[in-house]
């Protein structure tokens, strides 16, 4: 079975990997490579831009007539128009952009009343499995007499604009809920005092071309557990997005995540 896919943000770092992997997948037909109207690469063949050879699909702002899934890796500012187009055309959406505002999230949630949407801060199977492991660790360690300090360390490339990463925040939410730790500390500086027990610490490192790395530290008195998941390139996210696009075809309207797609709930 072939699915017709439009990539939104097709000229970007992730968009190019999606074009390259989609062009090589017999089960995928790329029907549009969408990017912003003034994109410097507008009109270029998306496959050539991605280093995958000519595929006959230009980088453009023109939406396709028909499509089984739109995969979005773009920018927060594009969210409203993206969601409006998907709802108007009844196109299912795989939404991967991070760093959005609360109002943009509300619009996505409202749109999920009329179309199916998979939204996840990380499309990687390994990251989503690590989230499950973190939840089990959090629930198991919650009432340990010595107390457990949770610190979330993430590393990403120097071009990343949002901090901490969407994935770090997703890990944080899972652990805040599982361990009843509602406070967040983003880095520490100066005489901040002893560490509160109900705080989760976030540390965002920006360096070189790192495609994404997360370490969850569970610090106890006398023992430490670290869960670490690290990408060596972007294909784990792109492959996960295609898994979601194949899964979403024919699903009823609703807001789903990668835990639904991967059967981890
Ligand atoms: N959920 C996940 O698994 C992952 C999520 N991400 C997230 O995906 C997003 C994109 O990452 P990345 O590819 O590195 O970023 P890039 O900046 O390389 O790519 C974003 C692309 O979106 C384009 N764009 C800007 N405005 C619009 C618009 N109105 N319509 C369509 N396209 C537009 C940009 O064009 P221009 O440059 O001309 O502005 C650019 O080509 C980020 O939020 C990142 O955090 C990244 C990896 C994994
Ligand atoms: O910008 C990136 O590169 C990534 N962003 C996502 C995030 O913010 O969690 C996912 C991945 O870590 C790569």
UniProtKB/TrEMBL annotation:
Its EC number is 1.17.1.8. It catalyses: (S)-2,3,4,5-tetrahydrodipicolinate + NADP(+) + H2O = (2S,4S)-4-hydroxy-2,3,4,5-tetrahydrodipicolinate + NADPH + H(+); (S)-2,3,4,5-tetrahydrodipicolinate + NAD(+) + H2O = (2S,4S)-4-hydroxy-2,3,4,5-tetrahydrodipicolinate + NADH + H(+). Pfam families: DapB_C, DapB_N. Pathway: Amino-acid biosynthesis; L-lysine biosynthesis via DAP pathway; (S)-tetrahydrodipicolinate from L-aspartate: step 4/4. The active site is at residues 156, 160. It is found in: Cytoplasm. Residues 127-262 form the Dihydrodipicolinate reductase C-terminal domain. GO terms for molecular function: 4-hydroxy-tetrahydrodipicolinate reductase; NAD binding; NADP binding; oxidoreductase activity, acting on CH or CH2 groups, NAD or NADP as acceptor. GO terms for biological process: diaminopimelate biosynthetic process; lysine biosynthetic process via diaminopimelate. Coiled coil: none annotated. Residues 3-123 form the Dihydrodipicolinate reductase N-terminal domain. (S)-2,3,4,5-tetrahydrodipicolinate binds at residues 157, 166-167. GO terms for cellular component: cytosol. This is 4-hydroxy-tetrahydrodipicolinate reductase. It comes from Pseudobythopirellula maris.
């Amino acid at each position: 079975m072939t699915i017709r896919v439009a990539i939104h943000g097709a000229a970007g770092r992730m968009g190019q990997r999606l074009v390259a992997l989609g062009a090589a997948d017999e089960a995928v037909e790329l029907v549009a490579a969408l990017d912003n109207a003034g994109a410097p690469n507008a009109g270029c063949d998306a496959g050539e831009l991605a280093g995958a050879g000519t595929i006959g699909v230009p980088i453009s702002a023109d939406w396709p007539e028909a499509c089984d899934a739109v995969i979005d890796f773009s920018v927060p500012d594009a969210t409203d128009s993206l969601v409006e187009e998907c709802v108007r055309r009844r196109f299912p959406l795989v939404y991967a952009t991070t760093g959005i505002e609360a109002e943009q999230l509300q619009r996505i949630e409202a749109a999920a009343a009329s179309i199916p949407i998979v939204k996840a801060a990380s499309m990687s199977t390994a990251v989503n499995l690590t989230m499950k492991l973190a939840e089990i660790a959090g629930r198991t360690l919650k009432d340990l007499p010595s107390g457990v300090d949770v610190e979330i360390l993430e590393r990403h490339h120097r071009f990343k604009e949002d901090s901490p990463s969407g994935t770090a925040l997703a890990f944080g939410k899972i652990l805040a809920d599982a361990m009843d730790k509602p406070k967040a500390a983003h880095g520490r500086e100066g005489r901040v005092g002893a560490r509160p027990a109900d705080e989760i610490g976030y540390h965002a490192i920006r360096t070189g071309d790192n495609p994404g790395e997360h370490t969850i530290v569970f610090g106890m008195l006398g023992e430490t557990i670290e869960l670490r998941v690290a990408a060596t390139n972007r294909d784990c996210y792109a492959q996960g997005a295609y898994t979601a696009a194949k899964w979403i075809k024919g699903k009823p309207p609703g807001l789903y995540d990668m835990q639904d797609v991967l059967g981890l709930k």
